Amino acid sequence: MTDDHWGPTRRPKGKARDLTPEQQALAEDLHVRALALRAASDGELSIREAVDLAAFQLGLEAPQTGTVDGVGA
After folding, report:
1. How far out from the chain centre does Cα 32 lie?
2. Cα 56 to Cα 17: distance, rounded to the nearest angstrom
3. Distance between terminal CA atoms of the chain?
4. pLDDT tens sequence across 17-64
5. Rounded Cα–Cα distance for residues 21 and 39 (Å)
6. Are 30 and 51 within 8 A, CB to CB?
7. Whole-model pTM?
8. Could you tell me which residues are beta bridge partners of residue 67?
């Protein structure tokens, strides 16, 4: 196992941006998935590859917006 740590980072003061609750949930889901993918790969995936793969997986899932076939329910 490598010594690199991939934890949350902070933006410099004045550069922070407020996320909507939906954006925050998506960012957290992406982060958790990427961490799990990278851990399961035994270091074979870079951080970027893990994030790319996690984003791809999220894109394959059906949207959770309360719509049916793209039409509001």
Report:
1. 6
2. 24
3. 48
4. 788 999 999 999 999 999 999 999 998 999 999 999 999 998 888 666
5. 27
6. yes
7. 0.61
8. 72
Neighbours of 25 (CB within 10 A): 12
Question: Position of tokens 């941006």?
Answer: 17
Burial zone of 34 (CB within 10 Å; 0-12 exposed, 13-18 middle, 19+ buried): buried
Which amino acid, one-letter code, is at 41? S
Tokens of 55: 């984003």
Please write down the HEC assignment for all residues of 17-65: CCCCHHHHHHHHHHHHHHHHHHHHCCCCCCHHHHHHHHHHHHHHCCCCC
**What is the amino acid identity at position 63?**
P
